[in-house]
Every structure is written in structure tokens, then in C-alpha cells.
Fold:
Amino acid sequence: MNNDDTLSFDLKGIQECQQNRYPQLFVDSIVDVIPGVSARGFKNFTYNEWFFPSHFADDPNVPGHIQIECLVQTFIMTFLCMDLYRGMKTNFVSINNAYFKRKIIPGERLEIRATLDSFKRGIAKGSAESFVGEEIACSADFLITLPDVLENFKPKKK
Amino acid sequence: MTNEEKYNKAFIESFGIEKDKLNGLKYQDVISWDSIGHMQLMTVLEDEFGVELDIDDITDFSSYEEGKNILRKYDVNLNV
Structure:
């Protein structure tokens, strides 16, 4: 807990909250977390990332699906930071309004700003956008489930 | 709009189905009434009727008809 009641997480703390691991963990640090409301994340890209040699050999840049992972892995910290949900697995339900505005290349740092609009019965709805410096890189809206929570609310019989 | 019309609208809009499919409709009879669709329906009904459903009622809500019985417990009269 920071002095202003927001939370921050280093790589160890992030991995205590979510189950993404190398080579699928795409956020390095999380700051300014207001549980149940919002979070801000950072991802530093270097040429050592496993995907740069193949995407593309003559023009290395971050693939779109990895940009989406950067957004959503910051987004899920808005609720996985809470004790009740810490460490749970998450699933995608939908990704809407995904826009890619800027190529991200080795050496650049992505800042992700995520907002949780609603969280009820294991279903989280919200959005995230990312920036390189002041330039917007990508954005998307998400519907995410916590299957272990959702399971408790499914009809018992057909 | 009557309460029954609001109830029907919640199903029609949550699951993208026609009104003539409602009678006898059960959980998982249509692809859109899956676990995610169920939570969406519960949220729409709670917002529409100003109630907060208990977890036991959410898990017992397994059909169009059963849902009417459950809402009556919350003083939602579907005949008006």
C-alpha cells in the first residue's frame, strides 16, 4: 500500500496476483492501483523478446495479440489485486473495439491505463489503452471471467 | 410496459431470441443462455426490477417459468 492508498506491484507481486508466466507474461510493473477501479502498468520491450526475430526479421515490432495481452494483463490487476480473487485464473469472453494506432519497436516502453467498469459474479467489464510516451498505441474493451467464481452462480440443473 | 413485458424483454435482448421461444425455455436450450448469458440475464433483471438476487435463487433460476416463481419471492408481480 502506498501513502495515497493506491497499490503497486513489482514482477514478484504481479505473479502472486495472476498466473501468466514467461513467455506469456507481458507486464513488468503495476502502479497506481485502486482496487476495483483502475490500474496503470508498464512493459519494456527489448530485442531479447522471443517474438521479435520472427515478427519480423527485417522490421521487428510487437505483434497485435501481444499488445492485447499487455492491455488485459494490466486490466485484470484491477480485481486480482483483491485478497478474495488473488491468484485466480481468468478467461476471455470478448474483446471489442480493438484499435492499433502505432507500431511498437524494440527499446520502447509501453504504458497501459486500465479501467474496471463493473465486476459482478466473476464477470469483469472494462477497457484499457496503451501509450508510448504521449502517443496512443492501442486500446480495447474487455469482458473477462473468473471461472472459479462464475461456477458458483451457474444454474444447478438444466 | 408491464412487468411481464419487461421480463420477456430481458430474455429476448439478453439471448437474442424471439418471443415465441420463451415458453418452456430452459438453461442451455439456446447457445446464448450459457453461464455468461445467465449472469447477463440476472444483471438485467436486477436492474429492471430493482432487486438483488440471492445466490441460491440465481442457481435455481433454470428456466423461463422458474424465473417467474423466483421473482415473485422479491414481490415482483409479473401479472401487472
Summary: The helical segments of chain A are 11-17, 64-75, 77-80, 147-150. Chain A is about 15% helix and 35% strand.
